[in-house]
Amino acid sequence: MKNTFGNSILVTIFGESHGPAIGAVIDGLAAGIPVDIDYIQQQMDKRRPKADGLSTTRIESDRVQFLSGVYNGHTTGTAITLILENSNTRSRDYEKTAGLLRPGHADLTAYAKYGGWQDSRGGGHFSGRITAAVVAVGALCRSILKAKGVCIATHLRSCAGVEDLPFSPQTEELVQQQNRLNEMDFSVISEAAGAAMQIAIRAASAEGDSVGGVLETAITGLDAGLGEPFFDSVESVLSQLLFSIPAVKGVEFGEGFGFAHLRGSAANDAMRMQGEKVVTTTNHNGGINGGITNGMPVILRTAVKPTPSIYKEQQTVDYNKKQDAVLQIQGRHDPCILPRARAVQDAMCAIGLLDLYTQRFGTLWQAEEG
Amino acid sequence: MKNTFGNSILVTIFGESHGPAIGAVIDGLAAGIPVDIDYIQQQMDKRRPKADGLSTTRIESDRVQFLSGVYNGHTTGTAITLILENSNTRSRDYEKTAGLLRPGHADLTAYAKYGGWQDSRGGGHFSGRITAAVVAVGALCRSILKAKGVCIATHLRSCAGVEDLPFSPQTEELVQQQNRLNEMDFSVISEAAGAAMQIAIRAASAEGDSVGGVLETAITGLDAGLGEPFFDSVESVLSQLLFSIPAVKGVEFGEGFGFAHLRGSAANDAMRMQGEKVVTTTNHNGGINGGITNGMPVILRTAVKPTPSIYKEQQTVDYNKKQDAVLQIQGRHDPCILPRARAVQDAMCAIGLLDLYTQRFGTLWQAEEG
Amino acid sequence: MKNTFGNSILVTIFGESHGPAIGAVIDGLAAGIPVDIDYIQQQMDKRRPKADGLSTTRIESDRVQFLSGVYNGHTTGTAITLILENSNTRSRDYEKTAGLLRPGHADLTAYAKYGGWQDSRGGGHFSGRITAAVVAVGALCRSILKAKGVCIATHLRSCAGVEDLPFSPQTEELVQQQNRLNEMDFSVISEAAGAAMQIAIRAASAEGDSVGGVLETAITGLDAGLGEPFFDSVESVLSQLLFSIPAVKGVEFGEGFGFAHLRGSAANDAMRMQGEKVVTTTNHNGGINGGITNGMPVILRTAVKPTPSIYKEQQTVDYNKKQDAVLQIQGRHDPCILPRARAVQDAMCAIGLLDLYTQRFGTLWQAEEG
Amino acid sequence: MKNTFGNSILVTIFGESHGPAIGAVIDGLAAGIPVDIDYIQQQMDKRRPKADGLSTTRIESDRVQFLSGVYNGHTTGTAITLILENSNTRSRDYEKTAGLLRPGHADLTAYAKYGGWQDSRGGGHFSGRITAAVVAVGALCRSILKAKGVCIATHLRSCAGVEDLPFSPQTEELVQQQNRLNEMDFSVISEAAGAAMQIAIRAASAEGDSVGGVLETAITGLDAGLGEPFFDSVESVLSQLLFSIPAVKGVEFGEGFGFAHLRGSAANDAMRMQGEKVVTTTNHNGGINGGITNGMPVILRTAVKPTPSIYKEQQTVDYNKKQDAVLQIQGRHDPCILPRARAVQDAMCAIGLLDLYTQRFGTLWQAEEG
User: Fold this and answer.
1) CA atoms within a 13 Å half-sphere pointing along the CA-CB vector of B306
2) Chains in contact with chain B (at least 3 beta-carbon pairs closer than 8 A)
3) HEC letters along C200-262
4) Nearest residue of D to residue A71 by CA position?
5) Is the Cβ of A74 closer than 8 Å to some Cβ of chain D?
6) SS (H, E, C) B178-214
7) What does residue C270 show for φ and ψ, rounded to 5 degrees?
8) What is the Cα–Cα distance from B159 to B54, expressed in whole angstroms?
9) Residue D25 is nearest to which of A25, A65, A71, comparing CB atoms?
């Protein structure tokens, strides 16, 4: 449904990078849910560029404004509209290069789809900026899930060729890791790996280049029984959302592509009773079997391609003149998007899971005491 | 939407492995489209188990019957319902082990979701058998796309640790590869790799074990401009469908997880004019930028986990007795699902792409002369 | 969504009058709901033509067969597919008049939409026969609502110019009326009115003509708080469904078109406390304010046009020859559809209300003990 | 889908009467469609209260602001967000009577649904004010349809007991009537009837009372073949939208409830050739057969109940104190909503029809030259 996602909750996003505002409508939240502005801004801040040499120098205040659906600090039960004004726009950077298609970007496809009518300033509707609205919506969803004991956390599993430690296979330790990651700006499990990543990002940046990596998310505290066998499998729902994040080109759950090298006897997760509960002794399936949560932590990873905006000279075409050309990108860009994209990944997971919960337990459930 | 997929075309699948029939409803096809039973059966045959030691010995005739929407060999424009009767069912194989949860399967999650009311015979609604209906629907969609010049083909990029050659970067050669693959039962580019894979599969099978791998699909002849920037990105739409295939645990486009190790300067696809058309000199992005097709071939891969049904003894629990147990699986199972799953992957791609085409060009377009 | 309705439950209908079978898929029912075949057939029987001179002489056995989603007499929680085979088809009746468009029917619009590819035998997908599947699905939904205390009943409020008594304004008496109506084949409150209607129907039939009327439904036992302020208002949801019934050309709630002649002071329903509960002293608004149920009985009416199939000679055109023509309809037809359509109207209400309930309370709620 | 409507175009509305702004998102419009602000405001002006004693004295400037999707005076092809700020709010009028439920309003149902968390100032999300956003969206849709030759016009068929003339059965004359109506503030065919209506409205107003009526719409220039046989019948789609208008309690097409008194031989529309085209000699079916447009004008009517806000004293309850009470409504209210609601009715029709057109002909069709 184009810019709208969901079944029991519906999220619609809108906006262009240099238009008046970006934002989102979220419909299907129960009435009476506390809207904690500080918590929302805290999530927004994770996505905001920092003046640390690792991200763009376009700094937006990103104050979330509610146009509807929130009253006296709580949801009213009607559609919630939130917007973020676009303030720090420098459209001139883009005008200079109009017609020159940026490799790796959506410039060519925007022409193919919109025939030249697109607002291409700052990437328009393809800009990563739109994901700020997703983070705000995700924060609302996340606060509901949090009250039910669901925790979501993402780290840079690899970046610029440097690997972080994996999540712990022990759930208790994993939850501690999650809590630490959710306090960090540059979210890694191993401090040493994080330091090495930052050095590698700065090195690429110094050369006018950019780097990619892998973002890994763990979700704990989920009920077993969420999701559907086919088109609304947990993997289907989350991957639809995760592939909406600009730059994500791969999604895997549990062992993911690692399964290709395993035999069934090694890939299957053995089971045992833990009190009254069935648990698996390993978690190769990443908490999901047959598309449905099994009560173990959901583990997923996305492949994030290097930021396509680089300062190095590139071969391209001038779309207007229909001739080959050379492009030297100006403007302000992130040499690495992963430290900020992790907030978007958290948000997408929160949106997808709240929708699955709401289908199963109803809208009213959201506001029930735990 | 649970068992229903789509926007402009809607596909609903239903059935359990040992129920009277499985099937699907497809709504949104234009009137007057030829329904070529031979072509459909040809696609069905690719998914059917063969008596070759590589797949289950449960052989179904899998004759597609139409209950609605087809008249005089053409679509009528109304909802098409097709069913496949379940004939060769041996439910007793499953009764023996009732309550013993099969590791890697959806037995535990089925209990969590359905509370014991599920029809668990043969995996019930979680059975790979349901995908036979998907293949039939996909064949209908594919025949429409084919008439428009769109070609879809899938090969075993890797299986049991053996790698096949990648697709050719030259589009003309790629189309030839596609045509050859679509004629093959065991679809590989390199015959030698295929032979080695089959040996490896048989070796695992002999040990009562199973293997996984990677299925790679190429789609050529697509128009530029399909898909949407966010929730209906081509990646989002196809991944939702692909993750519906039981056993798929990863999806990637273009370089996919390989992007993690590239710098932007290496990852971006340079552009040049080819006559009036813009093409890219490489195809790291797999034919998709900003969620929208750019006119280059779409390249994607799925990670397929090893069949969870293995004959080796496994540690599990008895769900009814709530105690640890040991399981020795009986019944008929595929030591490797990839040779058959490739037909399902083709079908899912066809369904997703026809939906995107129909949104852009309308229902009537489907039946227009090329 | 063409042939699919719903949000939290999805109903897809399919089939043509003279094809192999008609049927429906219903997705989103909880697992473990008893499937009472007798109750379903009882609802089916209300819609079946009787050999009473008031309806068509095409008698179908209309035995519901389940292809999926039902096991051991209960829902499994997966998509339920039910079919009804078409047995008593006499396509020759229609062949004689091929090309001659039947006034009041969908023959002209079928050509416009499907370009001649439609299966026009017996009205094809436009046939009232398709509503047999709706009744079967409605019976499933209704049995769930019934267990929660919701009662639905419909009577012929007017037919062939004869008026029945209105529903009682007293809820207790209304429930008694509902129970009586649900036991009747020809459902009227006043026996005298019913007798007069039957005389009038037979009179029209004898002249080769047909009659219309108004079907009025009362729904009691509903919770307050169902529905949404705008596009999913209870009126919006139910009217979408009710206008799907062939022959329905008007839908009104409460006073409906009678509101045009009232002043606000007469139209508003005064309120008072009844113990802890707020009730209205009148029910002009038919149990719905602002699109949401208020806890009073929902009262609605549909306008049902006279059956377009009449035996009198009619002016029409020959679509193939593109010339004016005269048509004398053959075949078997109902002189009045209302006695049978009331079962469809009940079913549509049940489907819509179960969807609204499920959105609010979740899928699991359906199977909970009252 | 709660506050979202549509298949190929999606319209999401949001806002509360006294919140910061109301608005809508419309997704699925093609790129390059001219956005004529003057035309939009012209439609908005039809809905705006006038200082004529017939409507509320709350005057809003109702300037439409675009937050996204419009650039250089044309649509960009992405989601369009428009907002209308709420300026002239006097919440105090409502505070005085907090807890006193207004008869005929959604106060009771809002408590039932939202448990007291609703923003009830000015009716909150139930306010007719939200329909201002619908009119703005409808104006966009209408401008696209207009360029294709589709004309929509609505008149007060009856009001306060006074009847206007019906639409002409001659299409040419009907189009002239439509053009005249679209220029009028108080849209009636007969000037004398209009004058009598205004006298009757003022008389009711002087007594602190309000009046209702019937709005009749004609839609000309439609292609045959729009709509679907069942759940997306033209009647289903339009009625879902029309019943979203607060105060609409009935919807009928063609003869509507008048069919109840006709025999088939009088109700069926005879056909004849008009050149190459098939036309009907009467239009009892209101341009729709089997849910699908037949190329004749679509004629529909809605029943609009009298404004529930009246100044006369009313019996009600105090929801907070749980006791019977008497209410004397203050504030600014319309004694008759019909003159303004006609703009909303036009808009709803435009939205529904554009969605049906887009499904059939595709998104790109919208921007094609006629």
Assistant:
1) 30
2) A, C, D
3) HHHHHHHCCCCECEEEEEEEECCCCCCCCCCCCCHHHHHHHHHCCCCCEEEEEECCHHHHHHC
4) D119
5) yes
6) HHHHCCCCCCCCCHHHHHHHHHHHHHHHHCCCCECEE
7) -65, 155
8) 12
9) A25
Where does residue B327 fall: left (phi above 0), alpha (psi -120 to 50 degrees), or beta otherwise? beta
Q: What pLDDT is recorded for position D94?
A: 56
Phi, psi torsion values for C11, nearest 5 degrees = -115, 125
Please give the Cα distance from C259 to C271 (Å, whole number): 19
Domain boundaries, chain C: 4-367
The alpha-carbon gap from C353 to the nearest alpha carbon of chain D, in Å, equals 14
DSSP calls for A178-226: HHHHTT-SS--S-HHHHHHHHHHHHHHHHTT--B-EEEEEEEESPPTT-
Q: Which residue in B7, B360, B363 is closest to D360 by CB distance?
A: B363
| A368: three-class secondary structure by DSSP | coil
Among B298, B253, B33, B55, residue whose Cα is nearest residue B153: B298
Q: What is the DSSP string of B295-306?
A: SSPEEEEEEEPP
B234-242 and A234-242 helices, crossing angle to 10°: 170
Homologous superfamily of B4-367 = Chorismate synthase AroC (3.60.150.10)
Cα–Cα distance between D269 and D220 in angstroms, integer? 18
Contact at 8 Å (CB) between C299 and C258?
A: no
Nearest CB among D259, D272, D293 relative to C305 is that of D259
Picking from C112, C114, C131, the residue whose alpha carbon sits closest to that of residue C47 is C131
Check CB contact of C25 with chain D, cutoff 8 Å.
no
Residue D19 burial (10 A CB sphere; 0-12, 13-18, 19+): buried
Q: Please tell me the distance from the alpha carbon of residue B125 to that of residue A355, in angstroms, as a whole number.
A: 22
The predicted model gives B146-152 an average pLDDT of 97
Looking at chain B from residue 280 to 309, which residues have their Cβ under 8 Å from any Cβ of chain A?
280-281, 285-286, 288-295, 303-309
Name the E strands within chain B. 4-5, 10-14, 21-27, 65-68, 70-71, 74-75, 80-85, 151-159, 162-163, 213-220, 248-253, 271-274, 277-280, 288-289, 292-293, 298-304, 314-318, 323-327
Rounded Cα distance between A145 and A155, Å, is 20
Token pair belonging to D6: 């549509």
Rounded Cα–Cα distance for residues B67 and B65 (Å):
6
Mean residue pLDDT of chain C comes to: 94
Quote the percentage of chain A above a pLDDT of 70: 96
Nearest to A6 by CA among D3, D77, C2: D3
If you compute the radius of gyration of chain A from its CA atoms, what whole number of angstroms results? 21
- Digitized pLDDT (tens) for each residue of chain D, 370 residues in all: 789 999 999 999 999 999 999 999 999 999 999 999 999 999 999 998 877 777 776 666 789 999 999 999 999 999 999 999 998 666 665 566 778 999 999 999 999 999 999 998 988 999 999 999 999 999 999 999 999 999 999 999 999 999 999 999 999 999 999 999 999 999 999 999 999 999 999 999 999 999 999 999 999 999 999 999 999 999 999 999 999 999 999 999 999 999 999 999 999 999 999 999 999 999 999 999 999 999 999 999 999 999 999 999 999 999 999 999 999 988 778 899 999 999 999 999 999 999 999 999 999 999 998 6
Most B CBs within 10 Å, among A7, A16, A26, A109, to test the B interface: A109
- At C55, the pLDDT band (50, 70, 90 cuts) reads confident
C24 pLDDT above the threshold of 70: yes
